[in-house]
Task: structure prediction
Amino acid sequence: MDLSLLTPSQEQAVCYRGGPLMVLAGPGTGKTRTLTYRLALLMSEKVARPDQILALTFTNKAAEEMALRIDPICRGLQIGSFPKITTFHGFCYGFLLEQINPPFQLLSEQEAFIILKETVREETRTVSAQLLKELARRISWAKNTSVSTDAPGQTPPREAYPQWAATYKAYQEKLALKKCWDFDELLLQTVTLLEKKPDLKDSLQARFPYVFIDEFQDINPIQYRLFQLLTSRDGNWMVIGDPNQAIYGFRGARADFFSRLQKDCPALAAIQLRESFRLNQTVLAVASQVLEGSLQKKALPLISSKKGEPGVPVAALATAEEEGEYITQVIEGAMGGLSLDYPGQGLGPGSNSGRPRSFADFAVLYRLHAQGDQLAKIFLKKGIPFKKVQEIHWAERPEIRGVIKVLRSVPI
Result:
């Protein structure tokens, strides 16, 4: 198998054979390439059969990308079967279907929300839609951090709903009565079953002696427990991720699982991917300053062959309106003016680049949907055409939900 396209640190991770491995990989350092090459090398050297390999990630998109990359490699090696590459929830769903009889009904996010709404209305007549959404997030947090309905003393961060524990318990009882589970329940039920039946746990470990966890920084307590149940301390498993990219704290994810894993598994080896292909040196330097300054974190030392601009402009603005106005001025400055009262002096990156620009050259990134709504208002006011990207899961589209409702009403 040709490893010439790998960097030295990637090749070290791909070829490692000393037992459990943790790979620290910053942005753009080739996490997916390293993981897929390691999978392929295990199969090509006949160290592992494809059906002995389990690779878990957090989104369907990430699982599909991994599968797309490994597919041509498997074809080139003329391997008949294929490794199991899926999400945590997808793995649990398939596993529970094999073990639970009669089968359960899995609810969509919208369907689970409707049941929660019914539960709250039975307790109190009126509640705002915003509070309902917040309560749904809190219950999801409780399940992902293993807070049971019998532990009301444990409260989620920033809890604003005083009866949340009682509502959580009533919601769980209603799900059981309807013989339904929400997505978070998949993880809980799998962990509970494996902890109650050690023989089942042992059979899973024997079935998948090679386990890979992608984007390990996104793991939460219930997923970490599942990971422990699927692996042994000295097993042939690998986790890969970047502790500085953990952004799912609201779902219980914690980057400190990297350090916890080292304590739980003293034999764990660690390799860092150092070369970033996505980001230039300027962006890496700025990110490092932010992490080591305001966030008090130690950034992974990365290098890049791309030099980048001399610096990154930073604008301190007091309100969302001021931010929107500033962004429109940057766009206007880069394009040479959009209105008759344009003052003629550019702002921000690209304003003096000397080459013509179009609206398609600009992208505005934001953290919250509310910020996107504010920007849309300002762009409309200024006459700036834009396309707002807002992802909606296919299963939540009204036409799909209608079809699913009809299919569920058909007697089997």
Notes: The first helix runs from residue 8 to 15. The first strand starts at residue 21 and ends at 25.
